[in-house]
Amino acid sequence: MDNPLLQLEGLPPFSLIQPEHVEPAIDQLLSECRSGTEQLLDSNQEFSWINLVEPLEILDDRLSRAWSPVSHMNSVVNSEPLRAAYNACLPKLSEYSTEMGQNERLFNAYKYIREHDPNLDQAQQKSLDNALLDFKLSGVDLPAEKKARFKEISQELSQLGSKFSENLLDATHAWSKLVSDEGELAGLPQSALDLARQTAEQRGEQGWLLTLEFPSYFPVLTYADNRELRHEMYEAYTTRASDLGPDAGKWDNSEIMEQLLNLRHEQAQLLDFDNYAERSLARKMARSGQEVMEFLHDLAARSSKQARAELAELEQFTSEQYGMEQLEAWDIGYYSERLRQHRYSITQEELKPYFPETRVIPGMFDVVGRLYGMQISEINDIDCWHPDVRFYEIRGRDGELRGQFYLDLYARPQKRGGAWMDECASRFVTHQHTQIPVAYLTCNFSPPVGDKPALFTHDEVETLFHEFGHGLHHMLTRIDYPSVSGISGVEWDAVELPSQFMENWCWEREALDLISGHYESGEPIPDEMYQRMTAAKNFQSGMQMVRQLEFAIFDMRIHQEFTPEQGGRIYEILEQVRSEVAVIQPPEFNRFAHGFSHIFGGGYAAGYYSYKWAEVLSADAFSLFEKNGIFDQNTGDSFLHNILEQGGSKNAMDLFVAFRGREPEIDALLRHCGIAADATPRVC
Ligand SMILES: [Zn+2]
């Protein structure tokens, strides 16, 4: 019992967790889950929530809480031994999950409870409805042979997804470029130069070290005058984990992607779906693939004219100002930034001194305090996985502890790119005890350089608000059952509502004053700078919109159109989608799909459209704050009570209507993006 992963009281003891603890702990908990389930099924004649579902949720919760730090550390402090231990557990967990999903006795017991238990509340009913659907989606109704095949596929899928992410991480870290002549880096802002110098020093090198981590890659593509350098890094970045580029074939995801599509298709067909896209939509707010595609094409039709006009403007600008006739993919970001400066004389760099971490973090907490009456404070001396990580707790107006979270802000080697929120513990209340929700908030922002505080771009601040919105959804829930508390059980295409919703506060003067202030003088963002910043807000919003639509349509189509005979046709379909909706055609060598981890290594397969879908909801929800005031207490309380606290206990549409008083309309989104809405609002 000295395995730290089995100490399931309180927070995970991160400093004690070693790779050799992982498999024994998971083996033991899986075996307890299995025998516990059998015992519960054997010892009862008449099943109820209290005698079956609750004790099962307790068993599952123990397993989740032990696995959560393992999976989290695998993402943020990856190492060979940890990776091996993590991967050794994936098939076991997948096997267990399918086994439970295919357990007919359990299925019948749940059906019985749903029909006969007289004491079920709304959240319990919803939890059981979800569970019954999940049984079907796990193949509970299938004949034995197909059940076995289903299970095999689930295991392979979880391993392939993990391998996809590993390849991408390895390929990202394999590439770097040491620059010894500062002249080659002309145009780069001082912060990017400082970071490159610090990175070189940390690796014992002289000069400036560039990497494919986002805080290094992005400034080069945006600011470096050296076109060859931009080209070189663009090629390295967009060919990661593929058959092309500087590390061609070394971590090639091609075969994995084909296999993933193939197996997803086969599994969907076992369940009698036409394709994996239909399977994916079975648990979403959207009703059919057709509805999703119509939604995406409708948005494309509304934005493509503006996107084309924006590109034409960029081409005219570069031709007039720089004599450039042919813009390559590695020129777009650079000249777009020039055009933005020309038109609005504003840069991300210029804003950075106003967003020191020391203002942004407490300011964001202040925003949440005003909106929902929550108090957030840091707790010291908590055992974490890295010295940069901090830990906080959230309390309500009455001092009640609502949730806790870890905050891991900076990019570093061995940490997966991007930003995300993940669950450490879920809210879970039984007669015996109350478990407080705990979240991990992970970002990959520029670290502090020298003794300055970390200075964030406004984009980074927006990302932070986004992830914090997910975190609040997880932590402020009032639902007592982990299967439908927080983001659990929420339809995936509605899960981005609270996150995208929070981003709006990054643009409002009243909120900005809380989260910004010059890191040296403490002065607020000058008014004229704020004017320029908001004027530039929708710069190239049409181009950004069609880019997201390109990804979303591509994701739907490769899952809808897969056939075993023809295979994935991944780049063929991507080409078609691009010629239909994109305004920028990337070069032949671009291997975007090989790094599209949302759909190949994460949970967004045939679900990437969720970002746009939920953006309609979040923009429309925010429009009520625009009407009533962005810190209006009643509106804040209503969002808290009707959406954040409800988790997955009701359908997302019902929750939205309870808050907004009607179904969602698309025009708020278009207005926020500066894209003209036409007369007929479309309900989604
Ligand atoms: Zn999100």
Characteristics:
single chain; 684 residues; alpha+beta; Glutathione S-transferase Yfyf (Class Pi), Chain A, domain 2; Neurolysin, domain 3; 5-stranded mixed sheet; two-stranded antiparallel sheet; 56% helix; disordered C terminus; binds zinc ion
Folded structure, characterized:
The chain has 684 residues and is an alpha+beta fold. Among the domains are: 4-101 and 103-137, Endopeptidase. Chain P, domain 1 (Glutathione S-transferase Yfyf (Class Pi), Chain A, domain 2); 175-238, no CATH class; 254-346 and 540-608, Neurolysin, domain 3 (Orthogonal Bundle). Helices cover 56% and strands 7% of the residues. The chain has 26 helices and nine strands. The strands form three sheets. It has a five-stranded mixed β-sheet with strand order 3-4-5-9-6. A hairpin with a 5-residue loop joins β4 and β5 (401-410). The longest helix has 34 residues, at 289-322. The chain starts with 18 loop residues before the first helix and ends in a 12-residue tail after the last helix. Residues 678-684 have low confidence and may be disordered. Zinc ion is lined by residues 466, 470, 496, 499.
